[in-house]
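Memo subject: From amino acid sequence to discrete backbone structure tokens
Action wanted: Derive the backbone structure tokens from the amino acid sequence.
How to read it: Take the token row as a discrete description of the fold.
Attached in line: The record itself begins immediately under this heading.
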Amino acid sequence: MRVILLASFLVLASACGMPKDIYSTDKNALQQQPPPAPPPPEAAGPANPKYAILKPYFKEYLKRPADADVNVFKANLAAFAPIVEIEEEPETTQEEAKTPLEFFDVDSYKLVLIMSGTAQAKAMLTDPQGKSFIVQVGTKIGNRAGKVASISSTEMRIEEPGHPVIVKALESGLEDMQRELQAVEEY
């Protein structure tokens, strides 16, 4: 059995020929080698039928400039962004405490006295309960957010948002005396 194996090995070794020396420097040996064979020609149709479907889209993709490439991850990022709900605190406007002048309507106050000869003109008002108050320009008055706009020697102007200007004029002393006389006569 050994003899048969040895014989078959020798037959195969002699049929293969001598191994070529790849480090040979013989120019004639290198020139005698045939040139490499050209690659086989491609088949007329595409090998993959799916390529035929994608070919027009691929050609359009190749025509686009490189800077026109869209980052699909950035384009779809908004769909995955977390929705943050920020609860807005209601604006807490600290309302100033109402003064006694802001409890009654402006028409219910009576103008008693005006001091106009001073640096800042002032006026004295009485409310329906008989209490007296000194006001100047800018003083809040009335239950509709009114303010004293101006004080002259004979009148006081009060502006309320959304309402016409209210003018309070000094009553002459004669009218007061006549009222008092009527009150005495009726008594």
